[in-house]
Amino acid sequence: MISSRGLCYNLFVRKILLIAAVLSLAVIIGRGNAQAFPKGEEKKCSECHTLTADQAQEVLKPFAPDVKVLYIKPSPLIGIWQIAIESGGRKNIVYLDYSKKMLVLGNLIDAKTKVNYSRESFEELNKVDVSQIPLGNALVMGDKEAKHKIIVFDDPE
Amino acid sequence: MKKVLEKRKDIAFYILLYPLPMHADAARIAKAIQCKKSLSLLEEAFEKKKIPDATCETSAIDDNIKLGQKLGINGTPALIFPDGTNVAGAMTADDIIKKIDKK
After folding, report:
1. pTM (2 decimals)?
2. In this prediction, does ipTM exceed 0.85?
3. How many domains does chain B have?
4. Which residue from A60, A62, A148, B28 puts its CA 20 to 30 A from B92's CA?
């Protein structure tokens, strides 16, 4: 069921995520001079820390009892794992630190290039099979035979 | 969308009308536009002009809603790119073109 509340909630969550991202960036920048992770340390870190799907599930269960772990991989931010989860039919990205005590919900953004790694991973995770979308009902804007077809769900009001 | 089409002839938009429940009149308008399959009527709707009632019976809008729910679309506009990525919310013309060219 779609609801306006859902949309508002989404926006709200996004706002929180943005704030979280800014805060995390502040932490990274703050650490820049302290050399918390000297060159070459990253490899060692992810080698001596492990996280299994079961362990991740245990940590996440209190938040979503039906949570399923889809994959775990090192994140671009050193010291945390990137975990893809599915709960309530929705797929999402969360992060967990190596101590398995701190959960991070937010966006990792490359401060230089502005690439939003979290968003990219989220979109990748939520990819749909375009060939399964029937387009018989679609109104076509532009050349019907164009090389690139973008499907748009749009409200006319 | 128009800006993208002005710049690029190799891109087309396939628009599926997807009335949100929070817009009371959207379903009626969507049905009317669907009947005529008319882009100009859609534009008039965006301009908040009055849209006459549907001139046909069609299940197309209900089909779109079912499809959108299956895909987890809960806001508009939602863009689905050729590679299957699903972007919620409006994008600028440049961002759309950038995303297409990235592939």
Report:
1. 0.70
2. yes
3. 1
4. B28
